[in-house]
Amino acid sequence: RGREGGGEAVTTAREVAQRIVSGRGLPEETAGRGRAPANIALVKYWGKRDEELNLPVTGSLSISLGPLGSEVEVSPAEGPHDAIWLNSAPQPLTGVFARRASAYLDLFRPAPGYWYEVKARNTVPTAAGFASSASGFAAMARALDDLYGWGLSIRELSVLARLGSGSAARSLQDGFVEWHAGSAPDGMDSYGERLPAEWPELRMGAVVLCAAEKPVGSREGMKRSVETCEFYREWPGRVAADLAALKDAIARKDMAALGTVTEGNALAMHALMAATRPPIVYALPETVAAMRTVWAARQEGLPLWFTMDAGPNVKLLFEAKDEARVRGLFPEVQVVAPFG
Ligand code: DP6
Fold first, then answer.
1. Taken in order 284, 289, 290, 291, is the CA torsion positive or negative?
2. What sign results for the dihedral spanned by CA atoms 258, 220, 185, 100?
């Protein structure tokens, strides 16, 4: 997709990164620091038009989780390889975390054989089921900007974060963030932008049903859906309608409308996954039980909705006034107030 006419990449991620930062300097500080919030999509990103640059087929819209996210410190290092730390533990170079971090740093090395030390810390409780790769790459882009003194705009930082992980494009700002799909082959118009809206009463709850690693990662899963799911062609139209309805719900602070769009969009994404070949089903029996609990409670008048990502855990959406009732239904829920 987007690469027809040969396997060779039209534009590489390093070319895009260098175009943004070139001529802006070498390390001014001995260390750069950055932090970024985690985000949960209300209208989901599922499918790329360009895998090298993480360019999406559709736009998406998320809510940032305020203090929950990642902090990164980056500094030049002696070598002869990067030194990567996560939550104070040195990461093996052959491990997934260090490999992904080093591949991202490759986009920014002034010369081959230039090494970095990265100290990453997740302020998301590790078992909370909130993805940390989006906040991690966003915090890394900010830390590099701080180290080099580039003075990049939010939009440029969002483009750089996207090169690490698509959903990271939405982790540069708080509140509601829309990731514009864009149409430029180099992706310079594919970035996250905050909506001018506040919703202090909004709450998101994480219900962790299984902390084990997921069978199929998002990256592999969405590629498979684009290639094999015959309903995928319906997805862009559905997302366009959901994005319009969600933005309208946010502008009117209409909880029922926001919940309806969010829950429906997540279920539609999981239907795409199930119709992928071979099928991808993330739900466990506990996931389905949680969904039924939400539906039954709603039937009884509780304004409560859910969303799910590429995993079995469920995130709840409700307003502050209903928190006690939600905790009654899900005693283990971890509640976040995205607007502080
Ligand atoms: C289901 O952003 O993790 O959470 O771009 O390959 O790094 P890559 O994928 P990633 O996918 C997130 C998928 C999702 C939906 C969403 O966050 O919009």
1. positive
2. positive
Give yes or no for a contact between 161 and 172, defined as CB atoms under 8 angstroms apart.
yes
Give CA–CA dist 224/124, Å, rounded.
29
The residue ranking higher by pLDDT, 69 or 25, is: 69
User: What's the mean pLDDT in 236-251?
Assistant: 98
Residue 5 pLDDT class (50, 70, 90 cuts): very low
At 185-234, the pLDDT tens digits run 999 999 999 999 999 999 999 999 987 777 899 999 999 999 999 999 99
Question: For 41-56, b where at least 16 C-beta lie within 10 A, e where not — what string?
Answer: bbbbbbbbbbbbbbbb
Q: Which is the closest atom of ligand 1 to the Cα of 166?
A: 5
User: What spatial distance separates the first Cα and last Cα of the chain, rounded to whole Å?
Assistant: 40
**Closest C-alpha residue for ligand 1 atom 4:** 309
Beta bridge partners of 118: 74, 84
Rounded Cα–Cα distance for residues 82 and 113 (Å): 10
Distance between Cα 222 and ligand 1 center (Å)? 8
Helix ranges (H only) for the chain are: 13-21, 96-105, 133-148, 154-162, 218-228, 235-252, 255-274, 285-299, 323-329
Query: Given the CA of residue 165, which atom of ligand 1 is nearest to it?
Result: 7
Instruction: Write out residues with Cβ below 6 Å of ligand 1.
Output: 41, 44-46, 54, 60, 133, 165-167, 218-219, 309-310
Average pLDDT over residues 143-170: 97
CA 39/CA 131 separation, integer angstroms = 8
Give me the residues paired with residue 203 across strands: 318
pTM: 0.95
Six token digits for residue 213: 């690693």
